[in-house]
């Protein structure tokens, strides 16, 4: 018998054994490679990325802090090449400026396809730091703190529609208001107002127009799950089969929705509007090589897809915490009363004018509530992954070799007991008011609600603008009662969504704030 026939015969007889041996060898290699075998963590996680895929598919991201507690380690191995970091001091190393760590391959799952089928990264998803600077430069001023004041009329416009719908649909009828849904519809419409000077109509129609809320939810779930197997996502969506799929369906529902809004915006002759799209178009004059039609669409699409869910999450949590803490509610109402009394002293119309950004910022206790809510319920519920650069890094006293994926989960960092004390799991807004200067600085530096470093969320200031104006004004106009706190539940994923914020509403007496 020839050697080739012998090998073939042996393979026929033992192919199953050979495959098992190869799989075992791969798992052992995963376990021992990269010098990470000494880092504790679930044993199965060290063998295959499938553990992390299942972990996030089962929506277990919020339990990562308990893993750090169980293994009594600031470093936990969540994959053959993935390490979760629980030390607040590590935030500035991993997400800081020197060196800037590249975003991991997970962010490929955030690449989008334009209407012509071309694949584009965006200012959030690009992994190339030099390209990020190029993409960020034309639009950075539109998101700057100094630009906020110009957006206030747009925020007020949508807020007034929201309040009118609350009065018509729920105060007049006495029905329960599913505020979780309505807050997200508000966030969607306000993004439409800010980006296109046009509400999408969610509030007026009282429904999910074009199933956009559904589609954004699915997109976020996709990032959190398929992002754990980026090579598979890249093959299915962007390369390989992706080429075929994009011939059949060039782009998805979110980008189609955004593209339609851009076309509608372009049909208007008014170019003086202060909305985002107008600013993006103006930036073309200075950055024509960047602001192509396709790239313009990615900027607007990022606003629509990322700006609604995250703001809605923050609004839900702030409303829930205030409603479930009577003393907190009383202090917030007292700060609103102080603002209205000041207006009365200045002979300013006390009830017709919405609370301004400056007035919201002057509410010291309320701003502490906002900080505490962003701490106790950050929007993202998974580690934010970065690639360790050439030469490796030292984290928590341990050397982490180059090529390792490292990241912090805000739900872990924000509950660090050494930083926030033994009551780190509790809602205590006062911690932001009684902390000394050094402690406050440490807590501020560990704030991971909007990311950190050069890749901090561009929309941070816009979210804070909406929050600072909407919440005090909502409590100013309405008496709000939570129907059943037990209905309020979390749905963890890439984003940690909430449901069950059901309330009963009454119009607040106009003299309530001026009677004391």
TrEMBL record:
<keyword id="KW-0349">Heme</keyword>
<feature type="binding site" description="axial binding residue">
    <location>
        <position position="457"/>
    </location>
    <ligand>
        <name>heme</name>
    </ligand>
</feature>
<dbReference type="InterPro" id="IPR001128">
    <property type="entry name" value="Cyt_P450"/>
</dbReference>
<comment type="similarity">
    <text>Belongs to the cytochrome P450 family.</text>
</comment>
<keyword id="KW-0503">Monooxygenase</keyword>
<protein>
    <recommendedName>
        <fullName>Cytochrome P450</fullName>
    </recommendedName>
</protein>
<dbReference type="GO" id="GO:0016705">
    <property type="term" value="F:oxidoreductase activity, acting on paired donors, with incorporation or reduction of molecular oxygen"/>
</dbReference>
<dbReference type="InterPro" id="IPR050121">
    <property type="entry name" value="Cytochrome_P450_monoxygenase"/>
</dbReference>
<keyword id="KW-0479">Metal-binding</keyword>
<dbReference type="GO" id="GO:0020037">
    <property type="term" value="F:heme binding"/>
</dbReference>
<keyword id="KW-0408">Iron</keyword>
<dbReference type="Pfam" id="PF00067">
    <property type="entry name" value="p450"/>
</dbReference>
<dbReference type="GO" id="GO:0004497">
    <property type="term" value="F:monooxygenase activity"/>
</dbReference>
<dbReference type="InterPro" id="IPR036396">
    <property type="entry name" value="Cyt_P450_sf"/>
</dbReference>
<dbReference type="InterPro" id="IPR017972">
    <property type="entry name" value="Cyt_P450_CS"/>
</dbReference>
<dbReference type="GO" id="GO:0005506">
    <property type="term" value="F:iron ion binding"/>
</dbReference>
<keyword id="KW-0560">Oxidoreductase</keyword>
<dbReference type="InterPro" id="IPR002401">
    <property type="entry name" value="Cyt_P450_E_grp-I"/>
</dbReference>
């Amino acid at each position: 018998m020839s050697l080739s026939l012998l090998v073939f015969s042996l393979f026929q007889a033992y192919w199953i054994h050979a495959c098992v041996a190869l799989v075992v060898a791969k798992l052992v290699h995963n376990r021992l490679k990269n010098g990470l075998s000494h880092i504790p963590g679930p044993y199965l996680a060290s063998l295959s990325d499938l553990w992390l895929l299942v972990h996030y598919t089962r929506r277990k991201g919020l339990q990562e802090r308990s893993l750090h507690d169980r293994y009594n380690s600031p470093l936990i191995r969540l994959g053959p090449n993935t390490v979760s970091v629980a030390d607040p001091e590590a935030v500035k190393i991993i997400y800081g400026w020197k060196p800037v760590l590249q975003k991991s391959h997970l962010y490929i799952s955030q690449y989008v396809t334009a209407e012509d089928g071309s694949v584009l990264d965006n200012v959030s998803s690009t992994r190339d730091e030099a390209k990020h600077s190029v993409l960020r430069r034309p639009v950075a001023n539109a998101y700057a703190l100094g630009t906020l004041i110009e957006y206030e009329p747009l925020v007020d416009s949508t807020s007034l529609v929201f309040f009118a719908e609350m009065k018509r649909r729920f105060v007049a009828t006495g029905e329960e208001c599913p505020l979780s849904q309505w807050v997200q519809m508000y966030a969607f419409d306000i993004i439409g107002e800010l980006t296109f000077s046009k509400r999408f109509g969610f509030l007026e129609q009282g429904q999910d127009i074009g199933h956009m809320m559904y589609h954004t939810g699915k997109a976020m779930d996709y990032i959190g799950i398929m992002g754990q197997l980026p090579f598979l996502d890249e093959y299915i969506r962007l390369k390989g089969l992706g080429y075929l799929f994009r011939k059949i369906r060039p782009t998805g529902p979110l980008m189609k929705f955004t593209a339609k809004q851009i076309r509608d915006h372009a049909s208007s002759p008014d170019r003086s509007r202060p909305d985002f799209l107008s600013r993006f178009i103006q930036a073309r004059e200075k950055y024509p090589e960047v602001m192509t039609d396709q790239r313009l669409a990615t900027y607007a699409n990022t606003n629509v897809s990322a700006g609604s869910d995250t703001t809605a999450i923050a609004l839900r949590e702030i409303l829930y915490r205030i409603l479930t803490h009577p003393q907190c509610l009383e202090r917030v109402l007292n700060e609103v009363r102080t603002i209205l009394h000041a207006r009365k002293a200045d002979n300013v119309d006390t009830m017709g004018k919405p609370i301004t950004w400056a007035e919201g910022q002057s509410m010291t206790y309320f701003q502490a509530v906002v900080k505490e809510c962003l701490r106790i319920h950050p929007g993202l519920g998974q580690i934010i992954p970065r690639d360790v650069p050439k030469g490796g890094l030292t984290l928590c006293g341990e050397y982490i070799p180059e090529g390792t994926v490292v990241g912090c989960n805000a739900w872990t960092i924000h509950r660090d007991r050494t930083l926030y004390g033994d009551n780190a799991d509790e809602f205590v807004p006062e911690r932001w008011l009684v902390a000394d200067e050094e402690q406050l600085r440490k807590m501020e530096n560990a704030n991971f609600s909007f990311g950190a470093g050069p890749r901090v969320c561009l929309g941070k200031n816009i979210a804070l603008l909406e929050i600072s104006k909407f919440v005090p004004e909502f409590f100013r106009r309405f008496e709000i009662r939570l129907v059943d706190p037990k209905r309020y539940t979390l749905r963890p994923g890439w984003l940690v969504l909430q449901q069950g914020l059901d309330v009963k509403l009454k119009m607040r007496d106009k003299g309530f704030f001026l009677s004391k």
